[in-house]
Amino acid sequence: MTKGIVITLEGPDGAGKTSVLEGILPLLEAELSQRIMTTREPGGVAISEKIREIILDPINTAMDNKTELLLYIAARRQHMVEKVLPALEEGALVLIDRFIDSSVAYQGAGRGLDKKDIKWLNSFATDGIVPDLTLYFDVPSQVGLARIAKSKDREVNRLDLEQLEMHQKVRSGYLELAQENPKRIVTIDASQTLDQVITETVKIIKEQLR
Ligand code: TYD
Q1: How far is 139 from 188, CA to CA, in rounded Å?
Q2: Three-state SS for 99?
Q3: pLDDT in tens, 14-71
Q4: How far is CA 112 from CA 86, 87, 171, in A?
Q5: Greatest CA separation for the chain
Q6: Are 126 and 67 in contact (CB under 8 A)?
Q7: How far apart are CA 136 and CA 175, in angstroms?
Q8: Cis peptide upstream of residue 140 (ω within 30 degrees of 0)
Q9: CA gap 130, 7 in Å, rounded
Q10: What is the rounded average pLDDT for all residues in the chain?
Q11: Do 118 and 68 touch, CB atoms closer than 8 A?
């Protein structure tokens, strides 16, 4: 048993969870005495950041779906061993931007790989560690995609629209996970303003820690 606490942030692209993480961090640091560590997947440590480069490199169009899954799992394992587990041993509050549920939502619901296999691989990579709390930032697919397009300062193009189906599958994967894990996963309406989402997120985390 480890002494720390793991809280993960999940959601489809464009949900804004990375901005939420930046926004909640100073508020939590001001109120909590325990050490807070933030990190992200895929990445977080040198080896996993290298794996991230391979996964996300647009040149790798030939990548097979199972290869993609295994790379996310490999990145997760290394990140877990090098960064997350030591912080948990020290009793830290560990906030992770994406974790096991991303693989189920993206590679399972999105790419159509067997969710049972993914759940087993997740458990293999994490030695069975499951987050104490998962914040799922839910956003309608059109809103998420529009945000991504806006942040890139351009119109929504044909490719963005093609991504709509994938985006919708990922979202339904998350909604299914939230239904399956009502105690662990708390859904937050991420179509609200960033300030509203930050306030709600801090409140939920403080309730969990109480
Ligand atoms: P990133 O630029 O970090 O996106 P975001 O800011 O939305 O987290 O890229 C990570 C991408 O990897 C994102 O599209 C989700 C995807 N992903 C998976 O498909 N499976 C996984 O297991 C993880 C951790 C991420």
Answers
A1: 9
A2: coil
A3: 999 999 999 999 999 999 999 999 999 999 999 999 999 999 998 998 999 999 999 9
A4: 34, 34, 13
A5: 49
A6: no
A7: 9
A8: no
A9: 9
A10: 94
A11: no
User: Reduced to 3 states, what is the DSSP secondary structure of residue 182?
Assistant: coil
Q: Whose CA is nearest to atom 17 of ligand 1?
A: 102
> Alpha helices of the chain — where are they, by DSSP H?
17-31, 46-56, 65-79, 85-89, 100-102, 115-126, 141-151, 158-180, 194-209
Select from 181, 162, 168, 68 the least CA-distant residue to 109. Answer: 168
| DSSP tag of 12 | S
Residues with CB under 6 A from ligand 1: 13, 18, 41-42, 72, 97-98, 102-103, 106-107
CA dist 145 → 18, 164, 197 (Å): 15, 8, 18
Q: Which two tokens stand for residue 38?
A: 């933030």
Phi and psi at residue 53, to the nearest 5°: -60, -40
pLDDT tens for each residue of 129-151:
999 999 999 999 999 998 888 87
Residues 6+ apart with CB under 8 A from 143: 14, 191
**Residue 18 token pair:** 């990375």
Name which residue sits closest to atom 6 of ligand 1, judged by CA: 18
Sign of CA dihedral 167, 169, 172, 173: negative
Q: Kindly give the distance from the C-alpha atom of residue 210 to the centroid of ligand 1, in angstroms, as a whole number.
A: 30
Of 139, 72, 62, give the one whose Cα is nearest residue 101: 72
Cβ(81)–Cβ(87) under 8 Å?
Answer: no
Q: What are phi and psi of 4, to 5 degrees?
A: -85, -170
